[in-house]
Amino acid sequence: MTETGPKFQFYGRRKGHALRRHHLEVTEKLLPQIRIDPNTPAIDGDRETWLEIGFGGGEHLANLAERHQNVSLIGAEPFINGVAKLLALVEAKHLGNIRIHDGDARYLLAALPAESLARVYLLYPDPWPKLRHNKRRFVNADSLQQLHRVLTHQGKFIFASDIADYVAWTIEHVKEHEGFTGPGANTDVPPEDWVETRYETKAKAAGRSTAYLEFRKR
């Protein structure tokens, strides 16, 4: 896979431990079948398309695909171990409405047609907590402009984090953009039809609370 267009500095890991045999098999066989071309992504205009940025192990995305079989789902994740886990779920659950971009989501966003996504999920992104690393956070002026461009009218940008500083950062940056409404008052209440992620489960076990932010494109 080759990502073209604007160049972005990537931070984070592409690969962890060696893939187990089955994960290696689904990566070699299934990924080419459902991989979305990040340079010329095709969108099904007959049904809604949702995107999850940084899907981790894929449990949330697979659950959405099961619940909403009339929706086309795209998952963007550069960490191949997470991609392999999602592929195993796609195979086991026979999910036919998921496509994968196994790379930096910013290339995909830059290539997507305007007003092509009804929802974008960004759940428990890397907080880059050190002050000098804050600029690496996914939420920034450029990414918000791309999200605003690709979302449909009243399309949803759904963000969740257990890091209070990143929550405040996100609210501030979205407010500065002025292209979204939200997040509303009850940020401790999950959105309707919420699917708990494994990161959320870990946060609860550690005694940390999650903030759920739902913004709508003006």
Q: Quickly give the structural class.
A: alpha/beta
- Helix fraction, binned, reads 25-40%
Low-confidence stretches: none
Q: Please give the number of β-strands.
A: 7
Order of helices and strands: HHEHEHEHEHEHEHE
Largest sheet: 7 strands, mixed
Describe the fold and architecture:
- By secondary structure, this protein is an alpha/beta fold.
- 34% of the residues lie in helices and 19% in strands.
- It contains eight helices and seven strands; from the N terminus they run H-H-E-H-E-H-E-H-E-H-E-H-E-H-E.
- The protein has a seven-stranded mixed beta sheet, sandwiched between helices.
- Strand 4 (117-123), helix 6 (141-150) and strand 5 (151-161) form a beta-alpha-beta unit.
- The chain is globular and about 45 Å long.
Short account of what is shown:
With 218 residues, this protein is of the alpha/beta class. The chain has helices at 21-29, 31-34, 59-67, 80-93, 105-111, 141-150, 164-177, 198-205, and strands at 49-53, 72-76, 98-101, 117-123, 151-161, 180-181, 211-217.
